[in-house]
Design a protein that fits this description.
- There is one protein chain.
- With 105 residues, the chain is mostly helical.
- 73% of the residues lie in helices and 4% in strands.
- It is built from five helices and two strands, in the order ββααααα.
- The protein has a two-stranded antiparallel ribbon.
């Protein structure tokens, strides 16, 4: 659901910044670094998805599942979550800060 851009946040840029802050050895092969980036992107998306789902009411979750079953486009899913979850950008930002702190620890 989250994909590369959530609430105006570029997750790829977030992941690139994490990699930069982690300071991997310069001699690390590009392919290995690319795999690490891919894994981090997936994990960040999963964390965002989980926090969004956990902030939906039972009724909203039912509607959310219906939208998934209808295979609606990501923009429509994002619009639904934005309308259903108060302060969604702050919730996502908070979750990404926890993700960052955990990763860099």
């Amino acid at each position: 659901m989250a994909k590369d851009n959530v609430q105006g946040l570029d997750l790829q840029t977030f992941v690139d910044k994490l990699i930069e802050e982690k300071r991997f050895p310069e001699k690390l092969e590009k392919e290995v670094l690319d795999e690490i980036k891919k894994d981090l992107l997936v994990r960040a998306e999963e964390r965002i998805d989980a926090v969004m789902i956990s902030n939906l009411s039972e009724e909203q979750l039912d509607e959310f599942n219906k939208l998934i079953d209808k295979n609606v486009d990501p923009k429509e899913m994002q619009d639904f979550c934005s309308k259903s979850i108060p302060d969604l950008p702050q919730i996502i930002a908070s979750e990404l800060l926890v993700f960052r702190d955990t990763y860099l620890a």
